[in-house]
Amino acid sequence: MSEERTLNFLEQIVEEDIANGVNGGRVLTRFPPEPNGYLHIGHAKSICLNFGLAQKYNGKTNLRFDDTNPVTEDTEYVDSIKADIQWLGFNWAQELYASDYFEQIYNFAVQLIKKGLAYVDDSTPEEIAISKGTPTEPGKGTPYRNRSIEENLDLFDRMRKGEFKDGEKVLRAKADLASPNMHMRDPIMYRIKHAHHHRTGDSWCIYPMYDFAHGQSDSIENITHSICTLEFIPHRPLYNWFIEQLEIFPSRQYEFARLNLTYTVMSKRKLLQLVNEKHVTGWDDPRMPTISGLRRRGYTPASIRAFCERIGVQKRDNMIDVSLLEFCIREELNKTANRVMAVLDPVKLVITNYPADQVEEMTAENNPEDPNAGTRTLPFSNTLYIEREDFMEEPPKKFFRLGPGLVVRLKNAYIIKGESFEKDADGNITTIYATYFPESKSGGDTSGLNVKGTIHWVSAAHAATAEIRLYDRLFKVEDPGNEEGDFKSYINPDSLQVIPNAYIEPGLLKAKPGERFQFLRKGYFCVDTDSTAEKVVFNRTVTLKDTWAKEAKKG
Ligand code: ATP
Ligand code: MG
Q1: Which listed ligand is nearest to 228 at the C-alpha?
Q2: Minimum CA distance residue for ligand 1 atom 4
Q3: pLDDT exceeding 90 applies to what percent of the chain?
Q4: Cα(349)–Cα(434) distance, rounded to whole angstroms?
């Protein structure tokens, strides 16, 4: 990042560590997704942070799949996570799996049993909860807390061998039942789960809990700075306790505020519901806050990185306005997207004094913001399509577009004057008639006419058709996850509007999925993967202006 800014608190910590020679100045971070869903914009924040810190301080970042929960995990998720990180522009030093450490983590557990610091407990979850006491009262423990080391070793071995059913026994740390931190009151280290794991298959029927896997994995990899979100602050003493008791590499945990975005949900569990219950078309639905959804919507990796940089790193939970994300993509596409013309709500315009058999190739600038973007030609004829909203039968005073007697410029072409119109039986305008001024051609205008408005158009005989998908916010309220009742009752019923037959410049038929354009006056659009040779499908990435801010001002 070229922009000068003060160091965030994590950069300060890393710089201090380097100055003090901690770990010889080495920086190794990790990004630890659980492969139980697709990555979302919140993960992008964590990715930019972990990879960004390492890049800045000559370090490296591991990609570690935190795959210790066999039930919800899947290789489809592993593949999508890798693709998304690479798309965001980051490369990991090593691709690792917590499940590869199962043997080592098991041995760590045995080590703790041997030190008298772990025991097998046969209690029910309810009994265990009671044994921990309350925040104001120390726990009393369960009768199993005093089992001998030999008995614990034998039982733990038999847990591994599959002699017990799910839930029959757990392995608990013998930590501190009087600790004010409930996480220290003999937390569970292992549970029995006779479940198939996407990598280790059926080799294991006991799986370590997060608290006895994450720090251990960090340590095995010699991670220097283990960055996670604020809800893990109370886990930190336990993170350190395990590392100290095991006398393994002292990784250190640091916490930052998770990213919350308005008008969406960010928990994978909720996103999975939206997918499974078909409120969206999939994880990559352009309305989803997932990386794959944003990509399909037309967001670029750079715009997402710029967004993460802009919001910075906080120590307190907050809510970021989605309009900031929209601002970031708008800012980039304004510089990079070629301008084209597309008519979304067409009405026919006939230029009565333009020869019916004539076609002119008009020259159009691709991007006024980019002198290297070049020009293209556009066929012009006497019959065009323009936007229905650009013509008014009885225009009010400051309407600088088309109406009977009003003059307007057709972008890259001529100035025309509205003459008359025809309507169908329902009162809808079907054809507008206009005349043009031959000397007013763009680029060589000698007409001396002065017009205030410019509208876009496509030639009816030459236009191609496209399906256009306009998106709005997926939810009607700012924080649907925190509203009363089911978050899905706040889904915006108008979040997708499909225009099956819009007219586009003929050249756009060649556009490939992922290509981005500015449709003049209409917004930024991206070619969707649903496009076929016969039909191009466009997603609106974002409007040209923040229409919601305007709505809010109107009140
Ligand atoms: P979810 O609640 O959506 O399932 P998670 O934290 O369980 O999220 P993980 O796959 O475990 O998802 O997350 C991988 C990493 O990404 C973790 O380090 C986690 O802290 C971070 N992360 C997840 N969500 C956010 C967020 N909204 N903002 C910042 N970081 C996040
Ligand atoms: Mg998690």
Answers
A1: 1
A2: 268
A3: 95
A4: 7
Host H or E run for residue 160: helix 149-161
Confidence of residue 552 (pLDDT cuts 50, 70, 90): low
- How far does the centroid of ligand 1 lie from the alpha carbon of residue 275, in Å? 19
CA proximity to 311, closest of 301, 300, 323: 323
Ligand 1 lined by 64 (C-beta under 6 Å): no
Best of 8, 46, 255, 314 for a ligand 1 pocket test (most atoms within 8 Å of beta carbon): 46
Q: Where does 352-400 show beta strands of DSSP type E?
A: 360-365, 375-380, 383-387
pLDDT in tens, 162-206: 999 999 999 999 999 999 999 999 999 999 999 999 999 999 999
How far apart (Å, rounded) are the C-alpha atoms in residues 149 and 131?
A: 20
pLDDT digits (tens, 9 = 90+) for 201-260: 999 999 999 999 999 999 999 999 999 999 999 999 999 999 999 999 999 999 999 999
Active site residue 473: no
Rounded to an integer, the average pLDDT of 441-468 is 96
316 is catalytic: no
Look up 258 and say whether it is catalytic: yes
User: 494: which 2 tokens?
Assistant: 């108008």
Name the residue at shortest CA distance from atom 7 of ligand 1.
34
**What tokens does 81 get?**
């996570």
Instruction: Show the domains of the chain with their CATH numbers.
Output: 9-256 (3.40.50.620), 268-338+466-554 (2.40.240.10), 342-456 (2.40.240.10)
Ligand 1 centroid–CA 228 distance in Å is: 8
- DSSP letters, 109-146, are HHHHHHTT-EEEE---HHHHHHHT-BTTB-----GGGG
Q: By alpha-carbon position, which residue is closest to atom 27 of ligand 1?
A: 42
Tell me the CA–centroid distance for residue 47 and ligand 1, in Å.
10
Q: Is 33 in the pocket of ligand 1 (CB under 6 A)?
A: yes
Residue 229: Cβ within 10 Å count: 15
Q: Is 45 in the pocket of ligand 1 (CB under 6 A)?
A: yes
Please identify every residue whose CB atom is under 5 Å from ligand 2, which is an ion. 34
How far apart are alpha carbons 339 and 34 in whole angstroms? 41
The residue from 172, 252, 268, 295 that is catalytic is: 268
Tokens 């974002």 found at: 542
Residue of 11, 26, 34, 369 with catalytic role: 34
Q: How far is CA 187 from CA 28, 154, 161, 239, 381, in A?
A: 28, 20, 22, 11, 77
pLDDT at 555: 43
